[in-house]
Design a protein that fits this description.
Elements lengths: L2 H17 L2 H17 L1 H15 L5 H7 L3 H15 L8 E6 L5 E8 L2 E6 L4 H12 L3 E5 L5 H17 L7 E3 L5 H8 L7 E5 L2 H10 L12 E5 L5 H13 L8 E7 L3 H12 L7 E4 L1 H4 L6 E2 L13 E7 L2 H11 L4 E5 L3 H10 L4 E4 L19 E2 L7 E2 L6 E8 L6
Parallel strand pairs: 3-4, 3-6, 4-5, 7-8, 7-12, 8-11, 9-10, 9-11, 12-13
Antiparallel strand pairs: 1-2, 2-16, 14-15
Helix pairs in contact: 2-5, 2-7, 3-7, 5-6, 6-7, 10-11, 13-14
Length: 414
Amino acid sequence: MTTLEIMRAAKAASSAIAGANEEQKNRALFEMASALEKNSQTILEANKEDVNNAKGKISDVMLDRLLLTEERISAMAQGIRNVCLLPDPVGTVLESRTHKNGMEIKKISVPLGVIAIIYESRPNVTSDAAALAIKSGNACILRCGKEAHMSAKAITDAMREGLKKAGLPENTVMLIEDVSRESANELMRGVGLVDLLIPRGGKGLISACVQNALVPCIETGTGICHIYVDEYADTEKALSIIENAKKSRPSVCNAAEVCLVNKKLLPEFLPQLEKRLQSGEHPVQLRADEESLKYMKNAEKAGENDFDTEFLDYIMAVKSVESVFEAAEHISLHSTHHSDAIITENAENSEIFTKLVDSAAVYVNASTRFTDGGEFGLGCEMGISTQKLHARGPMGLKELCTYKYIISGNGQIR
């Protein structure tokens, strides 16, 4: 099918899923999860082909994002089941009032309609996006990068099998067949067919969508995440948090990219930080400002763009700052407003930081790696919005709904 045909088919299917009740949607999700597990071997074979084709073309950390295993497929299936346990957002009465003439006015949560998501090389996004779309009563169009297309097709085929078994239209979930740039452009121009476009990926993809989309678009994902080590920090706590935020999975958007350190701590803290981050199987390359370089043996001088780069790799920029105010000022100039953290035992400084840092998630004494729909109790996520309208932070079921007013009268006229 062409991209236009897919958009039209999803639009046609959107009425059926919008009208499905919670029991029908949950049954569909359970059948989709079971179909993923039943077809795991087919999915793994498709993924193996994707990984083999991508070797030498993308970094090792990006290969890890692309790779599927039995355990990861099981986790994807469990993620779908977790969405079943969440309350259905559709039909929730958000507000109600009675007009002076007796009319009842209710503000009701309703599905958006057709949600299109453009993403790169993470196959699990395929199932997460579909599960959230269905539970929130939306049809879903998936457009993945060419590196993951075979994996995404096998996953989508399995989920469509589950939808059919549950008695809902297969076209509720559709995968774009064309992986050229033109298919992404068609989604951006799909006025009347696409109700919301969500890009998940690198800066280039997100910028292209935000700048060129004629349909509503949510800016997501790019994460230049900071950790500020305050003069009142518990240094062992800080080392542990930074190691987790940088090294546990550097290829994801909630991984820390920049460490800001209060100047009073430089002589004591930076040698420990260097030792901690450069030990183990994957040493972190540190790129530091001139003041910080004095206290580290193996760091490189930070380049012009290093404090504005989402590395998604074992690389971290390090900078010294005078105070919590300077840290917040640096973050306001260089952050992508995703996730930023302060490590401190000083309540006043933590309050200053959380007030001044204008990001979707602001942490005190915790790793930025927690910015995730599952960790926030949303089941899974459609993406992490770094804008302020219509959604901010991890996007779960409620963020995939809009609302309408329903007014009940008895012959009233104005």
